[in-house]
Specification:
single chain, 80 residues, alpha+beta, SH3 type barrels, five-stranded antiparallel sheet, 5 strands, globular
Length: 80
């Protein structure tokens, strides 16, 4: 039962927007597009200038934790 709940929690990342902070410095802003396999996700990046789509990266949950990613449910922060 715990594994089932854990899987559901991981899937909740899909569709969330984020900022990444490696070494305490802001690096990326984007959105989690899809889960490719357990622990590995495809993320779409957004331009700092226009807020428009600007590429994509593959990231794992360990990287998200190491870089202190912050997640958001809405995209308004891209245009602030």
């Amino acid at each position: 039962m715990a594994k089932s709940n854990e899987r559901k929690a991981k899937d909740k990342l899909i569709g969330l927007f984020f900022h990444s902070y490696p070494n305490g410095r802001l690096r990326w802003q984007g959105r989690i597009l899809r889960k490719l396999k357990p622990g590995l996700y495809r993320a779409e990046l957004y331009s700092w200038v226009t807020g428009m789509e600007n590429g994509a990266v593959l990231v794992d949950r360990e990287q998200m934790a190491d870089e202190d990613w912050e997640f958001y449910t809405a995209a308004e922060w891209r245009f602030a």
